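Posting for a labmate who doesn't have an account.
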Amino acid sequence: MCVAAARQALDMAGLQPVDIDLLMVATVTPDFRLPSAACIVQKKLGTINSASMDIVAACAGFLHGLSIGNAFIRSGQFKRIMVIGTERLTSITDYTDRNTCVLFGDGSGAVVLERTEEDRGILSTFIKSDGRHKELLWIPDGGSDRPAQSLNGCKGRFNIIMNGSEVFKHAVRQMADASSRVIKAAGLTSKDVNLLVPHQANIRIMKSTAKRLNIPEERVFVNIEKYGNTSSASVPIALNEAFRTGRIKDNDIILMTAFGGGLTWASALVKW
């Protein structure tokens, strides 16, 4: 999925895999615990000139990658960066848990970042986390703290476990706060936002976040009914679909925001 999305992004950018200096993959469902998903993608895609790394920030992973990539380019360390958000959530879903199994999907989305002297691009980003609430959305077993082989035949918890009502409260509050911060940092107001592209987790979360920001529903992009919650892939998939369907035009101000397990959250403001 990563390679397919990456190739589309390279085609749109008019670049070749060898042009990429840094490859970042945001995911909680890598092919292997070792090596990183980014190294696997590097081999399959052919980004032989790049450094590669994974980002584990759950649903906010893609926007964490966007923020990291923005900082690297501004520092001059890298010229062209690919950020991929990808998940195979069906591999960690408990299909006997009807509170979660109906929510999740698989997918991948990618962008290429590079420096520009034009009046456009990433205006501001914000990332944050709060590890005190990790049990609200997590996979308890299978890591080095509780490895599978240590369970001695006991049934392990290797799938997503979520406290939906508590996640909802945190998600609305923190997505709205992060969004307000990037809007203010760019010297703009919510009235300047042409389109809100939120993490596609829950329609009530998206509507509540937009309401807190005073952004009308007609300026919120929604495609959750097609793909479900694809975690770190949801924002780049929605961004791509919004662009390809004509919802995004040159000079539009695009607000992206996401919230995920960790807990983690992030926002980014872009002038298209």
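Reply:
Got it, the structure tokens are right above this. The radius of gyration is 18 Å.
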